[in-house]
Amino acid sequence: MACYAKQSYATSTFSDHFQQQFLASKLHISSLPFKHLALKNNKVDLLARKLLYISSVTGAKFFDDTKDSNPQYPLIQCKAYEAHRSQPIQINIEFDQKAREEAAQRLKIGVYFATWWALNVVFNIYNKKVLNAFPFPWLTSTLSLAAGSLMMLVSWASRIAEPPKTDFQFWKTLFPVAVAHTIGHVAATVSMSKVAVSFTHIIKSGEPAFTVLVSSFLLGETFPLPVYLSLLPIIGGCAVAAVTELNFNITGFMGAMISNLAFVFRNIFSKRGMKGKSVGGMNYYACLSMMSLLILTPFAIAVEGPQMWAIGWQNALSQIGPNFIWWVVAQSVFYHLYNQVSYMSLNEISPLTFSIGNTMKRISVIVSSIIIFHTPIQPVNALGAAIAILGTFLYSQAKQ
Predict the structure, then answer these.
(1) Residues in Cβ contact with 3 at an 8 Å cutoff, skipping those fewer than 6 apart
(2) pLDDT band at residue 320, thresholds of 50, 70 and 90?
(3) Greater model confidence, 46 or 315
(4) Per-residue buried b or exposed e for 205-222, using 16+ beta carbons within 10 Å of the residue's own CB
């Protein structure tokens, strides 16, 4: 049944036959409340201005003015929908609690990853600036760990962060993680002191290959065939990029490879050490930085030494000026921040997923470093990097 209302409120007279037809035409469908009809003197005031289909009428009661000296005209509530639309269907969508929690978890991890990548880009820029002016990677690595340790000690002392409750077993479990972290950190810094940032990260994009190999041969884990096949473009792309690198340096190349292997062990040991522990990702990395600082400091003194540091520091200040101090502070602080966020991510995901995120992060680092440092790159070299990144994408798809 359809009713039509003009621009102004329209009225129509009900005959007895029309009244019967009106009530008999109720449609038993689910609909949405739209407008109301008011009866006065057998007339209907249409409070609508479009062609409507009446789906249901409730509260209808008709009075005869000739028989009832004191008539009361009740409000008739109609449910209708516009004529140019299809019949409305009420759909109640209730999200499952588990689905909502999973969506929130994915969002949380996404925020971690985005923050982690942004902080890492800033760190790599300042780290390379420092190493160009001050080519002492062992001291630079030590300062990064020292800055993070100091930041967390201040946070604990001021109660900005809750100090962790640890015991001897915790530190014992943390030791192999700290050794792997120290080796990986120094090796990556040595690599970037010898070659371009983009080349270091192209080589380090092969980390998923090291993850699979270590997990397979040392941990006895097995993976589907597509996972193994996805390693071929990763390894092949890294090889092409290395062969065609204009400023290839064997020390820089080996540093990146050693860093890959060390960080895979760090991630695996970290995940094992964090299971069943009350120490969260942020405090876990703080403890890791402190232990790594204790491990690295004597080796840094032995390899480079205070005398070389003093000479190099004076040369850097004379060439760069006071901005050099800001560079050192920035690279040290941002190193701790990006690693802290990455460990907060690792607390929520598997080592393999962490390696994927770590590799995808390198895309932004490679692109930004090429732009900022005007790094010369050949088409074949870029093709190798693209193949390696494509292999990483295929690897992530194969792991789903």
Answers:
(1) 46, 48, 51, 52, 54, 80
(2) very high
(3) 315
(4) bbbbbbbbebbeeeeeee
